[in-house]
Structure formats: structure tokens, C-alpha cells
Amino acid sequence: MFINIDLQSDDPIYTQLKNQIIASIARNEMRPGDGLPSVRRLAADLGINLHTVNKAYQQLKQQGFILIHRQKGVVINPEGIPAADEQYRESLERVLSPLVAESFCKGITEKEFTTLCQKLFGQLTNEGGWR
Amino acid sequence: MFINIDLQSDDPIYTQLKNQIIASIARNEMRPGDGLPSVRRLAADLGINLHTVNKAYQQLKQQGFILIHRQKGVVINPEGIPAADEQYRESLERVLSPLVAESFCKGITEKEFTTLCQKLFGQLTNEGGWR
DNA sequence: TAACTGTTATACTATATATATAACAGTTAT
DNA sequence: ATAACTGTTATATATATAGTATAACAGTTA
């Protein structure tokens, strides 16, 4: 687990935590079935509060990224991450839309934009992957 | 001006306002030189507070989308919107990165993702455009 | 028994969002 | 000149979110 929290960031700590765990999964650094630290352990390691970690874990659980067993602890969903449904695709479009509009106004072309997205996809890997 | 505010949205009102004005420019519905309502006028029309409008205007001004003359009122930047610099491109990448990672985990392919971006670009127009 | 697990509850601080007034200085139209 | 505008600034208040600090509960594991 390589988590880096920036206390000066505009993003809340629990959001940074969520994003970095998702990024670890996307980069195949963490795989389905792998365990995550307990809320107390991770909070202590990062020097933050247990509730902040718990909030991130709860949201990851709700999105199906992790399972939380009272006994076995926290585990990346062994069944794999649930596939995007129509609702997720709509929310993705809602988030992307203002980014595209602003970029367009600032002269960023469709080509440059999609090339950037491709570059970001390229930084992820599915080698020996789970999907 | 077709502004629609959703008080139930997770996005703050001033952000919704900002995004919709930027979207209007991107769709070529509003062009450089066009005037915008005064803070009091727009606030009254939308049924919100003058300071909320002012906050949106100040941020749009800081990004170069609009100019605010004490006398002439508020105008979409007649020189056109400033082109994206390296700093903007970096911030765009920082915002896009977690979206790509999450989408990837949920099985959205690079192709589907870029196709969505292309669709959003396609909804904008540069006919008779200013850039 | 002791040390851990997730979970829940309460309380407190700080910041962000939004509103409500009020006032100031400068235009513009009557 | 007066009245009606303009953006701007200041102050105050209410609410929600973010983060922390403790404490406790029920269950597991060594």
C-alpha cells in the first residue's frame, strides 16, 4: 500500500484515499482477494483519524470495490469489481461534460483530449488481470 | 441565457452557474463581446443571492472567460477565451486520472471512454466560431 | 486474558456554502 | 440634480461538510 495524503489538497482526505485505492486496483498493484489494513492501522500509518479511513472504506464498499467482513477484515472484492451500469455511465457523462466544455473553450481539441485519456488508460494494465 | 439551478444538486450553486455559462460559450450560444446580466439581475431571475452570482463571476473572470468593467458591466471576453497553458493541462490530467482509473476498474474500455468524450465534443460547435 | 476487528455514538473545531442587509463609489438616464 | 443602476466590500447568520477526539460495544483471534 503506497498511500500519500496531501493535507493541502482541495480534495478531502477520504476522497484522496478512495482514489488512490482505486488507482492501485486499476494498476493491478492490488488484486481481488488482497487484504487492506484495518481502519485503525491505516489511520495510524497515515496520521489521520480512524473515521476518515472508515468513510473512505464505506464508500468503496458501497461501490463494490471492497468487502468488509467483521471477522476477516477488509478485502478487495474477490468476485472482481462490479461492471458499470447505465446509472454509472450517466454520472460519468455528467462529470465529463463540463470538463469537455471548458477544455474546448480553452482550445484543447477533441484529438488532444482523447489522446490524454488514452495516455491515462495506457498507464493502467490488465496483464494477468482479473477481468 | 438559459440557466437552470438545481438546489438538490451536490454541486454548489456557483459551480452550476459557472459550468452552464462555460457550456453556453462552448455551444456558441454566447459569443465574445456578448453581455451578461448584472449580479443583482441574474440573482433575482434565479431566485438566489447576489453574492452567489458574484462568486461565479469572479471565478469566471479569474479564468479569463469574462471581463467585468465597472461601467460597461459584465462581458464575455471580447479577445476570446485564453488558451490552455501547461498548468491547466496538468490540472485537467489530475481531474481525469481518477475518472479513468474508476472507469477502467468497472470494465469501461478505452474505446468506450474516448467515444463518450467524442460525443460530448460533438455536441459543441465551432461554426462561425471565434477560435 | 489480552489484543485485535468493524461499528456506533457523541462532541467539538474548522471550513465552505448560501443567505440577508447595508453601505460605498461610480456611472447613466431622466 | 435626482433616481436608478453598476461592481465591490463588509458584517452577520445559518447550515452542511470535513476532520478529529474519545468512548464504548460485540465479536474474533492468539
From TrEMBL, chains A, B:
This is DNA-binding transcriptional regulator YhcF, GntR family. The keyword Transcription regulation applies. The keyword DNA-binding applies. It comes from the Bacteria. InterPro entries: Tscrpt_reg_HTH_GntR, WH-like_DNA-bd_sf, WH_DNA-bd_sf. One of its GO terms (molecular function) is DNA-binding transcription factor activity. Residues 11-79 form the HTH gntR-type domain. SMART domains: HTH_GNTR. PROSITE patterns: HTH_GNTR. It comes from Sediminibacillus albus. Keywords: DNA-binding, Transcription, Transcription regulation.
